[in-house]
Sequence to fold (174 residues):
Amino acid sequence: MSALPKLALPKVPGLVKGLGVTLKTMVRTLTKGSHTVQYPRVKEAPTPRARGVITLHEDNCTACMLCARECPDWCIYIEGHKYKAPPRRPGGKPRQKNALDRFDIDFALCMYCGICVDVCPFEALFWSPEFEYSEPRIADLLHDKSKLGQWMETVPDFQDYEAGSEAKKLQVPR
Ligand code: SF4
Ligand code: SF4
Fold:
């Protein structure tokens, strides 16, 4: 059986197709409203648990380096030193502790994967929904521990667990 001959449809030029899409979008925007806002004149509130920026609660950080070792982008820079803390009980040995000298995150390299927040065993890193920290110079996206600490106040409290849960509810250190 011989194949049927293909119908030769008239070709629509790409420009006309493109203008058609533009017209359709314009009509939809005028009738139903747009999906975007005129930032920065209009600002939308992000969802409370949005991954805006990583914050540091310095008092909880022991400079263990775990977050820096696990970061796939190698964009966490930590420096610390050891010191002797007084013994817990009279007559005991002095304890060796780590002091944090430097904790920087380079947000020009960070890919917001959240691994550092997840692996920190001492509840020192948190997500904040803050997102307005763009800089004209890319080098200025390297933020130190004092800047990372300022965002702690924007970290939302942990949500309530399901009814019947016996797990202790975590608190955000303030
Ligand atoms: S979010 Fe991911 S890429 Fe960014 S600092 Fe943490 S581990 Fe590194
Ligand atoms: S933030 Fe957490 S994982 Fe990173 S060095 Fe401090 S205590 Fe260790």
Summary: The radius of gyration is 27 Å. Helices lie at 14-32, 66-70, 115-119, 145-150. The longest strand covers residues 95-106.
